[in-house]
């Protein structure tokens, strides 16, 4: 039997140890390599998944953007349609308003007596059967003491009373001598004048003067001192006040000094409405200077 010497034994032991170590390290290396490979695969997979997710998200984002764009487009269209509909409605409303305004104007005009702003002359004469739509008694305090009860057009009466009170505030004394006169009253009066003055009566109580009183919107005014229809009324403070202020209450002097159609009547004032009276005052015109069609434009607002 061969004797194993000591150095062989050590060498063998070393060999065994080396083999074991080599095996162990080999194993460890393999494991690491495997781990690394697996990790690489995992990472690659994860990255690929992330890319896919990202691509998916981008696609969804695009889809959403498109949807949003479509919705915005639809909204704009809706807004446009709404605006168009609104415009149509507004236009319709405007038309309705215009029509009702026109109807209102026509209605008001149809109810306004056109005789109230008529120019009277030898050619155009108020009908003897004409009676104003509303005749109201003037309160006694506004009528010259000793005179009969006086009557005036109900719609114009507040303007007359306001004017007399406005004058009183300026220490001007104004009273009514005569206001509404029926055709019969006028005939009787004309008869009296004719008896006293003969055919000359026509120059101061001719047809047009009569007609204006028959309207119910014309009044003869005086002050206590003058107390009648005399030309001397033109020299009073009351007349001066009327010339300056009567228009504010819708009154105008029908037959001013040196007018071309009638004798001067400082006492004879006709209600024509504030708008027309102001227009006449501002332009220094007389009622009978205007064309009838020009006057007619003021009919609608006569009692405003
Ligand atoms: Zn008169």
Question: Topology, please?
Answer:
Elements: H1 6-111, E1 135-137, E2 151-153, H2 157-169, E3 175-178, H3 183-197, H4 207-214, E4 218-222, H5 237-245, E5 251-253, E6 268-271, H6 274-282, H7 292-296
Zinc ion (ZN) is lined by residues 209, 213, 218, 220, 268.
Explain what the structure shows.
There is one protein chain. This protein has 304 residues and is α+β, with helices and mostly antiparallel strands. The protein has 7 helices and 6 strands, in the order αββαβααβαββαα. The strands form 2 sheets. A 4-stranded antiparallel β-sheet has the order 3-4-6-5. A two-stranded antiparallel ribbon has the order 1-2. The longest helix has 106 residues. The model has no long low-confidence stretch (mean pLDDT 88). The structure holds zinc ion.
Short structural summary:
With 304 residues, this protein is α+β, with helices and mostly antiparallel strands. The chain has 7 helices and 6 strands; from the N terminus they run αββαβααβαββαα.
Quaternary state of the chains: single chain
Please state the overall shape, judged from the principal axes of the Cα atoms: rod-shaped
- Mean pLDDT across the residues is 88
Q: State the name of the first-level CATH class of the domain at 114-301.
A: Alpha Beta
How many helical elements?
A: 7
Radius of gyration: 55 Å
Question: Features of this protein?
Answer:
single chain; four-stranded antiparallel β-sheet; Muramoyl-pentapeptide Carboxypeptidase, domain 2; 7% strand; alpha+beta; two-stranded antiparallel ribbon; 304 residues; binds zinc ion
């Amino acid at each position: 039997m061969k004797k194993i010497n000591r150095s062989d034994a050590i060498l063998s032991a070393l060999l065994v140890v080396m083999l074991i170590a080599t095996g162990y390290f080999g194993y460890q290396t393999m494991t690491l390599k495997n781990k690394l490979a697996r990790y690489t695969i995992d990472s690659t997979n994860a990255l690929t998944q992330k890319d896919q997710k990202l691509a998916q998200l981008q696609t969804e984002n695009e889809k959403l953007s498109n949807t949003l764009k479509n919705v915005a487009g639809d909204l704009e269209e809706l807004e446009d349609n709404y605006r168009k509909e609104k415009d149509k409605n507004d236009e319709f409303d405007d038309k309705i308003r215009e029509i009702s305004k026109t109807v209102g104007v026509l209605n008001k005009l149809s109810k306004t007596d056109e005789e109230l702003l008529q120019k009277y002359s030898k050619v155009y004469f108020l009908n003897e059967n004409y009676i104003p739509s509303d005749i109201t008694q003037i309160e006694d305090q506004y009528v010259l003491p000793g005179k009969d009860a006086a009557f005036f057009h109900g719609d114009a009466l507040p303007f007359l009373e306001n004017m007399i009170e406005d004058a009183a505030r300026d220490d001007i004394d104004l009273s009514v001598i005569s206001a509404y006169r029926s055709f019969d009253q006028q005939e009787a009066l004309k008869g009296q004048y004719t008896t006293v003055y003969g055919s000359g009566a026509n120059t101061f109580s001719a047809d047009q003067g009569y007609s204006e009183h028959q309207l119910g919107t014309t009044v003869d005014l005086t002050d206590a001192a003058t107390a009648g229809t005399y030309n001397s009324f033109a020299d009073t403070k009351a007349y001066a006040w009327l010339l300056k202020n009567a228009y504010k209450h819708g009154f105008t002097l029908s037959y001013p000094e040196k007018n071309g159609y009638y004798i001067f009547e400082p006492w004879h004032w006709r209600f024509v409405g504030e708008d027309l009276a102001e227009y006449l005052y501002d332009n220094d015109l007389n009622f009978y200077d205007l064309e009838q069609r020009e006057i007619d434009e003021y009919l609608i607002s006569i009692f405003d």
